[in-house]
Amino acid sequence: MLPEPKSYWTIREKFHDAPARFELVLNSVYRKVLKTGDTAIDCGAHTGKHTLPMGRTVGPRGRVIAFEPIDEKRVLLERNLDSANLSGVAEVIAGCVGSESGSVTFTYVPNDPGKSAMHLREDLLNSAAKMKTASKRVVPISRIDDIADIANLRFLKIDVEGAELAVMQGARETIKRDRPIVHFEMGLPSLKVFGIQPDQIRVFLADLDYLIFDVLGNDVSEPRIFALSAETDGVYDYIAVPVEEADTDLVAECALAIFSDPNKAAPPLV
What are residue 135's DSSP bridge partners? Predict the structure, then answer.
């Protein structure tokens, strides 16, 4: 039995590599969901940790759209895709994703690149060592709804350091039409600097008839449970599933497979 939100730290104490296993659960979910010929979108692709497995899963008849605002990481992403013979499957778009199209100021933090963002969280701003090498740059920002030729979107991954709700808002019509599985990261420090409360994300997804599961497979759709999950701050990955697919136990099955044995090292992403 996996811990409920109030006991998230139980599993983090039991599994020293829990964050890596959370990534594996995400990997397992989209590899179960995606089929040959499907479309996936990776918002915050970085160097391709998830873009590449998505590309292998959808195959040459499918499509992966990968957004990455950091030039230094995007060069590596394109190189990795080329080495994996996936350049014809994955389309890399420079810039951020949000609720409006145009341009935005983005801060790159080389000493902690995964936390680079449009608005930096307070712990970064208070770190002189990390901010010493930080640089601001103006990058494009796009709405997913403005990508005219998206077809059969089956999986949407959103890891954008606090801008998750804005990405969803800019993809509302696409989500309504295609009903993809939606992954999003959510952490209070990142949401705070965007002025977003976790319940705004829950309400947005509920209005589109989605249920929300944490990365351990717990249904956290109910307002009180979702708030508890966010406040407990033990997991950051969530999977939103259309209500018409919510009886599959998809996330729970993937999580149980990954968290079955703390003495067995987590396998690599594939």
Answer: 108
Domain that holds residue 62: 5-258
Average pLDDT over residues 55-67: 97
Residue 179 lies in a domain: yes
Please say if the pLDDT value at position 246 is more than 90: no
User: Residue 208 belongs to a domain with what CATH number?
Assistant: 3.40.50.150
pLDDT of residue 2: 53
**CA separation for the pair 5, 207 (Å, rounded):** 23
> Total domain count for the chain?
1
Would 45 be classed as within a structural domain? yes
What does the pLDDT average to over 86-107? 97
**Residue 231 lies inside a defined structural domain of this protein:** yes
User: 187 Cβ partners below 8 Å, 6+ apart?
Assistant: 162, 233, 236
- Spatial distance between the Cα atoms of 228 and 180, rounded to a whole number of angstroms: 26
CA 28 to chain centre: 14
